Predict the structure.
Amino acid sequence: MASEIAVGDLVQAGGHAGPWKVLEIRQGLALLEHHGGHRLSVRTTTLSVVRKASASPAKAPVADEPESPTLFD
């Protein structure tokens, strides 16, 4: 894999119209979200990076907000 996939990156998933935003990565699987709100879980080896996430800390999580559940929960 040419570049490391990270949360916030836009990626293309093999066999799926994209791009998809990476929401979470765990144990070789990535949880992706399409612009229409559709979610998909795929192996990271099937992904290619379209655009890396910006490194700016503009969206820091708010401490009072409960963490929303994901497909991995």
Summary: The first strand starts at residue 10 and ends at 13. The mean pLDDT is 80. The chain has no helices and five strands.
